């Protein structure tokens, strides 16, 4: 009728306390991350723009008329030969 050796010892209390702290800590961190995800701003949602490459900048300068066709072709050849090496 009486069961012995099934009482909670000191170490079991320590593990229960540690488990409770871990449980509440994970719950609070999860709640904070969920709120951060839900209420983020538009700038955080958009991916950061990739800076244009050298050929793209060169093509823009040619399109604006800053350089002529010969200079564009020469610089483009230099850029493409540099990427092959």
Automatic annotation (TrEMBL):
The keyword Transmembrane helix applies. Keywords: Membrane, Transmembrane, Transmembrane helix. It comes from the Bacteria. The chain crosses the membrane at residues 12-39. This is SHOCT domain-containing protein.
């Amino acid at each position: 009728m009486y069961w012995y050796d099934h009482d909670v010892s000191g170490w079991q209390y320590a593990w229960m306390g540690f488990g409770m702290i871990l449980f509440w800590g994970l719950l609070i961190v999860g709640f904070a991350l969920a709120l951060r995800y839900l209420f983020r701003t538009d700038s955080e949602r958009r991916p950061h723009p990739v800076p244009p490459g050298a050929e793209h900048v060169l093509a823009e300068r040619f399109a604006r008329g800053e350089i002529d066709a010969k200079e564009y072709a020469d610089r483009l050849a230099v850029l493409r030969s540099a990427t092959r090496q």
